[in-house]
Amino acid sequence: MGLFINSQRIRFRPGLWADIPAMFSLDARLFPPHSSYDLEVFHSLMLEEAVSFIVAHAADELAGYMILRIGPEREASALTIDVDPAYQNHGIGARLMALSERLARLKKMKAMVLQVSSQNHRAMRFYEKLGYTRVRFLRGYYGGEEDGWEMKKDLVSYTQPRILEKESTAALP
């Protein structure tokens, strides 16, 4: 069973070089300059072997994406998750998180970490619903202008909610 929004099928696949302009544009729309990625960061991340991009597409339009880094200490990092406002509140973010967690488990990661603005209460509630807990306060984390929280989820003992496991990840590494 796939994910549909307004009769449009949302497709999830690995990110490609050709996706970078749309990802860059979405990131710049969603985040202030002190916490958004510049184009060079996208290019350098795409070159990293330990980094995976997962994108969500509706027809020919980018609906959202996620960047995941596999770490050396058996800990994966969700570097960013962006969902276009037109597609928010339809499960795309939860599906991107579920796919990235599945990929992290396949790579034998024991935990997943992420950072979130201390002012972004909606995002913190979203991550908490997915099983993440606040583990460390990060003063001035976002360009010295904004504090953040590091959140973490144990991937070994946490059972993924069934609703998030319905989409096949055959196309993902």
Defining traits:
173 residues; alpha+beta; eight-stranded mixed sheet
Q: Can you tell me about this structure?
A:
The chain has 173 residues and is α+β, with helices and mostly antiparallel strands. It has one domain: 3-Layer(aba) Sandwich (Aminopeptidase), CATH 3.40.630.30. The chain contains four helices and eight strands. A hairpin with a 4-residue loop joins strand 4 and strand 5. The longest helix is centred in the middle third of the chain and has 15 residues. The radius of gyration is 15 Å and the shape is globular. The relative contact order is 0.17. The C terminus is likely disordered.
Write the layout of secondary structure elements.
Blueprint: E1 3-5, E2 8-14, H1 20-30, H2 39-47, E3 51-58, E4 61-70, E5 75-83, H3 92-106, E6 111-117, H4 121-129, E7 133-142, E8 146-154
Parallel strand pairs: 5-6
Antiparallel strand pairs: 1-2, 2-3, 3-4, 4-5, 6-8, 7-8
What's this entry about, in short?
The protein contains four helices and eight strands. It has helices at 20-30, 39-47, 92-106, 121-129; strands spanning 3-5, 8-14, 51-58, 61-70, 75-83, 111-117, 133-142, 146-154.
